[in-house]
Amino acid sequence: MASEPVTFSAVQFSAMNLLAMREHSVAELRQKLQKKFKDSELVNQVIDDLATRNLQSDERFAEAFVKMRIRQGKGPVRILYELKEKGIAEDLAAALVDLSDQLWVDLAKEVCLKRFGMLSGTPRQDNAKQIRFLQYRGFTSTHIRKITM
Question: 40-52 vs 8-21: helix axis angle to the nearest 10?
Answer without folding.
Answer: 60
